Amino acid sequence: MTNRLAEAKSLYLRKHAENPIDWWPWCDEALATARAQNKPIFLSIGYSSCHWCTVMEGEAFSDIAIANYMNANYLPIKVDREERPDLDSIYMQALQLMSGQGGWPLNIFLSPEDLVPFYAGTYFPVDPRYGRPGFLQVLETLRRYYDTEKEDLQQRKALIIESLLTSAVMQDATTTELEDHELLRQGWEISTGVITPSQSGNSFPMIPYTELALRGTRFNFESRYDGKQVCTQRGLDLALGGIYDHVGGGFHRYTVDPTWTVPHFEKMLYDNGQIVEYLASLWSTGVEEPAFERAVAGTVLWLKREMTAPEGYFYAAQDADSFTESTAIEPEEGTFYVWSYSELQQLLTPEELRELEQFTVTPNGNFEGRNVLQRRYSGQLSATLETALSKLFTARYGVSSESLETFPPARNNQEAKTANWPGRIPSVTDTKMIVAWNSLMISGLARAAGVFQQPLYLELAARAANFIWENQFVDGRFHRLNYQGEPSVLAQSEDYAFFIKALLDLQASNPEHQQWLEKAIAIQDEFNQFLWSVKLGGYYNTSNDSSQDLIVRERSYADNATPSANGIAIANLVRLSLLTDNLDYLDLAEQGLKAFRSVMHRAPQACPSLFTALDWYRNSTLIRSTTEQINALIPKYLPVVVFTVTSDLPEGSVGLVCQGLKCLAPAESAEDLWQQVRESQVRD
C-alpha cells in the first residue's frame, strides 16, 4: 500500500511512498484540507542524500502507532528542499529562531489558517534517546497545546512571524559607515579567519568563503592572517584529504573530523562545481600543485562517467550509503568507497601496498576498521601509486577506468540491489536536473577549461548549458528542475543568478562566442521582471506570481554550502554592464549593494558573496583586445576582469583597459597591457 507520494517525481518524496503516514505533497489542496479539517500541519523537509532523513523515514515515519496518531490529528506534508528552497529557507530560519540551530530533516508544525510555525525540530527518534523525546510524545504534546493553549499559541506565532518579517525587510538602524575599501578588507579578513584550519569539529569546503579569501590576496591588506597560505592550505586539504575520492574522483560533502580524513560520503553536484572552480583559480594564482590538477581532472572524469545524463545535463547527487550485497536489508555508509586492509593485500603487490601507505592506510583502518584514503604528502604521485589506485578502481567498478566510459546510475535502492553490477553495488544517484547546481558545475568547468586548457571541460559545460537553455522554458518562463525530460517548478533566484554567471563564465572562457552573452541578457531580463524588489532593492527568492503560499517573501543574502543568490546576482550585473555598456545594470548593482549594506556591516561572516560583489563593483575591469592577447590572459588569475574581443583598436596598440567608467591610455605592447591589468586589479 502506497500513499500519495508514489506519484511524485522527486526521489526523496518517493522514498516515503510506502510509509503508513498519509503524506501529502505541498499543494493548494493539502493546505485547503488542513484548514477545512482544522488540523495543524506537520511539515517535514529533507533531501534524498540526507542520512538522518533516511533514518527517520525508516524509523518514526514507518511506525504504525505514530502514523495512526499523525493521520488522525495532523495534516502531514513532505517537501524536497531541493525542489522548494524557498519554503526550506523560511522554515529553517524559523527553526533557528526557536532552537538556535538548524539541520535536516527539518520537522516543523504550522497553524493551517496562516502557515505560521509554532514548533520545530530536526531528527526525532521513535522512543526517547540521545537526549531527545520520542516522536509520538512530541505529537501528542503539541496537539494538546494546539487545542488548549490558544492565547499562548497566538503570542508565540506573533513573535515568530514578526522576526521573520523583520529579517525579510532587513531594515536596520546601523549608523557606522565604512569606506568600501575598509569594508572589503573586513569582509576578507573574516572570511579568511573562517577557513583558517581548526583543531575541532567537522570540515566543510565553504567555498564562498575561500573564494573571497583568495580574491583578497591580491591586495596588501594588513591582517593577522597570511591569506595566500590559508587559501593554499584549504586547497591542499581538499585535494589531499579523504573528502576527495582518490580512486574514482569527485568530492564528498564534508568530513566528520578537523583533519579532513573521514567524509560524510554523499557527493553533491554543487560542492564539486565550486571546488573545481576554486582549485582552478588557486592554480592560476601561481600555486601549481600537481594534486590540484589531478583532483580537478579526476572530478571531471567522475562527472562525465557517473553524473552526466545522455542529454548532457548533470545529475544532482549520490548517496552516502550503499549495500554490501544484494540480500542486505539496509545500506551502510561509505561501503562503496572504503577498503579493508585484507582487501588491499589481496588486490595489490607488496610494493604497491608499501607505496599506498603514503595514504592513511593501516591494518586497523581509520573508519570502522576500514580505510578511507587520504594522502599524507603533496606533489606528483608515482607510477606505482597510480597503478595501485587503478587496481582499486577496477575492484570497485568491476572494469578498468580506461574502458569505462559511462557508469549507469542506480536510481533507487531496488535498482541498486537488483542490477548486475560487475563490481561493488553503487550508491543511489538522484538523477534530477537542478538548474542552480548545474550552473555551479558549468562555471567550474568553464574556469578549469581556461586555466588547464582542456577542451573536454568546455565541451561538457557547453552541453549542459545548451540543455538548460533549450529545455527549461515553459510558456516563456524559466524553470528550475527537470525530471527525465520534463521541466518543473518555476525558477528561483539562485537558478537565475547561477545560470547567468555560468553563461558569463562560458563567455569569459571563449569571448568570441557572443551567444552566451546574448542568452545571459535574456535571462537577466526575466530575472529583473519577476524577482527584483523595486521597493527594497535586491532579488526575492521567488517570482512575484509564485509566492502566494509563502508567509514571507525573502531576499536571501547569506551564504551556506552554496553562494547567496543576491551576491552572485549583483556581481553578474556589474559584469553585464561592462560587456554591454548598459549602465542600467550598474544602477541595479548599486541598489542591491545598498540594500544589503547594513547586513555587510552587521554580519560580515554571513555573506562573503556580497563582498565578492562589492569587489566587482569597486574594481571591475574591462579588457578590449584581440583574440590572441585575450587567450594569453584567460589562464591568469583576474577575478574582476571581463574580456571583449575587438580588432578596432587605436593604431599601434594591442588593447584597451577600462576601469569601471574610465579607460586608460591604449597599451602599446603585451607587457604594457599586462602591467595595466595587474595595476587595475588592486586599485584603491
Walk me through what this model shows.
- It is built from 25 helices and 20 strands.
- The protein is of the alpha+beta class and 684 residues long.
- The strands form six sheets. A five-stranded mixed beta sheet has the order 1-3-2-4-5, sandwiched between helices.
- Strand 6 and strand 7 form a beta hairpin.
- What general outline do the C-alpha atoms trace? globular
Estimate what percentage of residues fall within beta strands. 5-15%
The number of helical segments is 25
How confident is the prediction overall: mean pLDDT?
94
Radius of gyration: 26 Å
Alpha-carbon distance between the termini? Answer: 67 Å
What's the main sheet like? 5 strands, mixed
Which class of secondary structure composition applies to the elements?
A: alpha+beta
DSSP summary, beta strand count:
20
Looking across the biggest beta sheet, what order are the strands in?
1-3-2-4-5
Short description:
The chain is of the alpha+beta class.
Present the secondary structure layout:
Layout: H1 11-14, E1 24-25, H2 28-37, E2 41-46, H3 51-58, H4 64-73, E3 75-80, H5 85-99, E4 106-110, E5 117-121, H6 135-148, H7 150-169, H8 180-194, H9 207-216, H10 227-240, E6 254-255, E7 263-264, E8 267-268, H11 269-284, H12 290-306, E9 317-318, E10 321-322, E11 332-333, H13 341-347, H14 350-356, H15 383-397, H16 413-418, E12 429-430, E13 433-434, H17 435-452, H18 455-471, E14 473-474, E15 477-483, E16 486-490, H19 493-509, H20 515-531, H21 565-580, H22 583-602, H23 608-619, E17 621-625, H24 627-633, E18 641-645, E19 655-659, E20 662-663, H25 670-680
Parallel strand pairs: 1-3, 2-3, 17-18
Antiparallel strand pairs: 2-4, 4-5, 6-7, 8-9, 9-12, 10-11, 13-15, 14-15, 15-16, 17-19, 19-20
